[in-house]
């Protein structure tokens, strides 16, 4: 069974969706650890309630590379196959990128490369686009720039607010993140430049 670690900063709804998909047999994986950088992260309580290993590594005042090295050290004994960033609000430092090269996935609530970074639903509304959505991508040293594994489009309605748009996008996030994790864990893909190509064999 492939083992994943999930990095979170807040409520952890994408983590909960992954855990639910595993329990219900839609995703073949084991959550070996949930790591939070925020002591107030609700996801820690959820992880403990589910009987999962919950690790708090506060990141306040710690630079990205030092923090990444701390995460690497905490995960080293756990034989992790894939890291999943589920609302993890920190840049990933180089030690993590080195330790888990092409083995870190992030979920982002826009159709990348449009609207990277923060406050993306408001960015989409302000720009006037007719569709937004979500993207699962491999993590590299840039800001939401890694090769794209999966995307889902969500139409923007005339009366949308940032909150209503975010809520509809979140439904798609919960679906495609587990699908992308399953693909990557299966190994049935290759990366060709910026493209992630699904293999039939």
Walk me through what this model shows:
The model has no long low-confidence stretch (mean pLDDT 97). The chain folds into two domains: 1-101, Rossmann fold (3-Layer(aba) Sandwich), CATH 3.40.50.170; 108-201, 3-Layer(aba) Sandwich (Rossmann fold). The strands form two sheets. A seven-stranded mixed beta sheet has the order 3-2-1-4-5-6-7, sandwiched between helices. Strands 8-9 form a two-stranded antiparallel sheet. A hairpin with a 2-residue loop joins strand 8 and strand 9 (195-198). It is α/β, with parallel strands linked by helices and 201 residues long. 35% of the residues lie in helices and 24% in strands. The radius of gyration is 16 Å and the shape is globular. The chain has helices spanning 13-23, 42-49, 64-75, 94-99, 120-127, 162-186; strands spanning 3-8, 30-36, 54-56, 82-85, 104-108, 131-138, 148-155, 189-192, 195-198. The protein contains six helices and nine strands; from the N terminus they run βαβαβαβαβαββαββ. Helix 1 crosses helix 6 (162-186) and helix 5 packs across helix 6.
Topology:
Elements: E1 3-8, H1 13-23, E2 30-36, H2 42-49, E3 54-56, H3 64-75, E4 82-85, H4 94-99, E5 104-108, H5 120-127, E6 131-138, E7 148-155, H6 162-186, E8 189-192, E9 195-198
Parallel strand pairs: 1-2, 1-4, 2-3, 4-5
Antiparallel strand pairs: 5-6, 6-7, 8-9
Helix pairs in contact: 1-6, 5-6
